[in-house]
Design brief:
CATH class: Alpha Beta
Radius of gyration: 15 Å
CATH architecture: 3-Layer(aba) Sandwich
CATH superfamily: 4-hydroxy-3-methylbut-2-enyl diphosphate reductase, catalytic domain
Structural class: alpha/beta
CATH topology: Cobalt-precorrin-4 Transmethylase, domain 1
Largest sheet: 6 strands, mixed
Number of domains: 1
Order of helices and strands: EEEEHEHEHHHEHE
Strand order of the largest sheet: 1-8-4-7-5-6
Number of helices: 6
Shape: globular
Length: 167
């Protein structure tokens, strides 16, 4: 069963309304491919943007080709934007128990030409379809996809909703 987290934005009068123009994110840690695809279908996602630097996984179904095929079967497009992934020093910092270093390393990486070009591509894609960013970590606060989402929405004006696939 998949559960989505709804995002609400305040209106000027203090009331809240559900946002229709959202950018979604999802992490597959602790999930099966069926869990993730189910959450994407429930949220009516049309495009999954893979923001892993290395789109390979030991988890069945989450390597690039397998993931793209599973999504295609459900009518969800797939694109991998490698330059939006965390560079090796950032991944190493997390493994060493220093996630705060990862953010510094990642933000510096994002100043490069290729990451900026792919960020612009991701923003263009997010404007045109209901899109979701994918990486491994379940908690978006511990994952660089939160930063990528913030950078995209600074350009597009969308709101971010973090999906959580549950088994």
């Amino acid at each position: 069963m998949a559960v989505t987290v709804l995002t609400f934005a305040p209106r000027r009068n203090g009331c809240y309304r559900a946002m229709m123009r959202e950018l979604f994110t999802i992490g597959y840690e602790g999930c099966t491919i069926a869990d993730v695809v189910g959450a994407l279908k429930e949220a009516r996602i049309g495009l999954l943007i893979d923001v892993r630097a290395v789109p390979q996984s030991r988890k069945p179904g989450f390597s690039k080709r397998q993931l793209a095929a599973a999504l295609d079967e459900q009518g969800i497009r797939y694109v991998h934007l490698q330059a939006l992934g965390t560079p090796k020093p950032g991944r190493d910092a997390v493994r060493a128990g220093h996630p705060e270093w990862m953010e510094t390393i990642f933000r510096a990486h994002m100043e490069g030409d290729q990451p900026q070009a792919e960020l612009a591509d991701a923003a263009g894609l997010a404007r045109g379809t209901r899109a979701c960013l994918l990486c491994f970590e379940q908690d978006p606060m511990q994952c660089h996809r939160r930063i990528v989402a913030e950078m995209i929405t600074a350009d597009t004006g969308q709101y971010v909703t973090h999906l959580h696939a549950v088994t």
